[in-house]
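Changelog note: in this version the structure field was regenerated for every chain. One regenerated record is shown below for reference.
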Amino acid sequence: MIFESFAESLSFFLWSTFVISVLLGVIVNKTNFCTMGAVSDMVNIGDYGRFRAWLLAIAVATIGVSVLEYMELVNVTDSFPPYRGTQLIYIENILGGILFGIGMTFASGCGNKTLIRIGGGNIKSILVFAIIALIAYYMTTPFPDSDKTLYSVLFYDWVNPLAITLENNQDIGAMIGGSENTSTMRLIVGLIVAAGMLFYIFKAADFRSSKDNILAGIVIGLIILTAWYISSNVTINADDSSYSLSDYYSEWDMLADDDEGKPATGRALNSQSFTFINPIGQTYGYIKDGFDSALLTFGLISVFGVILGSLLWSLISKSFRVEWFFDLKDFFNHFFGAILMGFGGVLSLGCTVGQGITGMSTLALGSILTFISIIFGSALTMKIQYYKMCYEDEATFVKAFITALVDMKLLPSSMRKLDAI
């Protein structure tokens, strides 16, 4: 995909993003693909169907990334965000993942689900969106007339010193293969991990008969891979040389005649795929700055595309329903959950899609930690809520918390405070 000007290449990049984002919105709405729902099904009714669909999306994306990277057709190492960076921010991955998992449980869905619900007429999700947008934006952007961000004020001093600097990239293939055999090892590890997931996924007979779950897993995995491919291969022919979007941006003063059409930032032009918390924050900045076209990015376009895709399917299937808060408790649950998702999603560098599928397709250690932490945070919250609902006044938070940890095999059964339900 070679273009003669930066404007043409950027236009193709953004329009391609929009098209596949709309498709993502359609397929997620149609199949009821929901990562929080997947955890809920596992915890509450022992149904692993939607969880397997989630894993299938990861497996498909991982196979594609492993093969295309080996063929040098995608670049997922120099990506935005830097999933495979040499600095392992494990505390942020774990803490952010847990906060996000708790938050999405209170807010009735992750970042992607929030967009899907908005497209389906859910007004509650507009509140969730607005709160995530404010927090995510100011986690990375200084407050007005200040050089401080929410991250620098609340987290930097105690979290950043705990990061570990690695000799190689943090993906499993690079850590095993070292600097000499990285390419081959990434392919081998990727295929082995994906094969293991596929065996687990399809050994369940009920999943093999679930058309929507299979459709969701395969198509969403391919959409993640498509975004990786497009963002890695859009190039500009300038001065008889080929430049990626990000490389052209870094050489702008040498290659371009003026600043017309220059994006506000270059890192958002790196190879990437879908993630939603930071882009929701970008939406606030885009509106605040008067819809400046220089602020249009893959992430921002994907937010609009997913909402539109969900809206289209809601209208086609006649499932569009305006939904408001049931009561004040419902309002505060969504408000609280959105706050945690805003903080957690930025800390962990992604959400259930951004880290849980896109990041996982790179087999980065930070993505794996985030994926596990999100599931843990959500599952723990659901169990606590369940015990408090069933036992009412008898179940204090501490009793429900300890009992939930016992159920999850993280504490001995002798510490159980409430009878199992």
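Spot check on this record: The first strand starts at residue 2 and ends at 3. The chain has a mean pLDDT of 95.
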